[in-house]
Amino acid sequence: MDINDLIREKVEEGFVTCHNESCRHKEHCVRWLGRVYEDPQPLVYKYVSMANPAIGGDCCPMFINDQKEHMALGFTRLLAQMPRAYGDDLMAWMKSECNRTYAYEYRNGTRPIPQRLQQRIIDCCRQLGWELPIEFDDYTDEYELRMKS
To answer: Could you give the C-alpha distances from 81 to 44, 77, 93, 132, in angstroms and in order?
Structure first.
């Protein structure tokens, strides 16, 4: 599916858009690009709040890139290689980082793992003391937008 069709579909479902004219990342932000597909006379507006100082900055929490990303699919083989205590600690960390459902979906490969979360998983494994190479079960190139609302 084309990125513009995907954005249009998400906006029609109620996807939150952004109208920050001064954002330096707007040309590649899906939330900015989605504003053109909004209902011109909505009953309820769903916009990113400009009151938050992080909005539009280098680490904007609402930024979604309009380019495909190399995402991992699952880490069950990694858990099978680790001592049980490491695996339990990693899953406990995952549940605290996202939520229980997402943690299991990430583990099983039913929810793609974005690159920034892949790196945080690797960092967590290293902090636990895991020194062997860290490989995810599989990889795919996908738009992060598929997972966001």
So the answer is: 50, 6, 18, 9
Tokens of 125: 């494994």
pTM: 0.71
Residue 87 region, left (φ>0) first, then alpha (ψ -120 to 50), else beta? alpha
37 strand-pairing partners: none
- Nearest-angstrom CA–CA distance, 11 and 31: 9
> Measured between alpha carbons, how far is 58 from 62 in angstroms, rounded to an integer?
11
pLDDT tens track for 88-123 = 999 999 999 888 999 999 999 999 999 989 999 999
6: tokens are 């995907």
